[in-house]
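Justification of resources, computational component.

The compute hours requested in this renewal are based largely on the per-chain cost of generating structure records like the one below. Each record pairs the submitted sequence with a full structure-token output. That output is archived, and it is also reused by downstream analysis tasks.
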Amino acid sequence: MPLGSGARIQRHFERRKKGVTARLRAAKSRKLKAVERERMQEVRERENHKCRFPHECGRPIEVSHQTHRGMGGDPTGEATRPEIMVGVCGPIHRTGRYAIDKKNLRWFPVSPEKGANGPIGWEIDVSAFPRDDEHFWVHTLARENGTIIVAVEQSPGVYYLPFPLTHRLLALINKGS
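The structure output for this chain reads:
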């Protein structure tokens, strides 16, 4: 092994110092992520760390964005405003048969000015239900846009008394979570 080759190998594995632009970009990214975490924590506290969907699940909540942040994150901070985020359990957010991320379950603000900080409603796309004898009644309830309103809040976390069919519909959704 020639002399000096060890120094060359060591230099090869040393990290180069980041340039000014890279350091500024990293600092901006850290600041944005801190603001996102703060806003998401605000949503969890607003929901009392309970799922906002009208069911008793007892699962830990995740914060669901009405407008997804996308692959590049949220550089403007627009998608992480508390009024367009709700706290829901994992099955209602992502993993259930009927879920927000599967685009067959949606929440909507009752008061557009307040967004999710005020009362919200839930609707489900009837195309998520199979067309069979067991689910036929679901398809007969669909509005013109192909959805059914599942529940509407009077105030955050307090729902209007559901109709008997709503109980049955909620039971189907919970069965799929």
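The two ends are 64 Å apart (CA to CA). The chain is about 35% helix and 20% strand.
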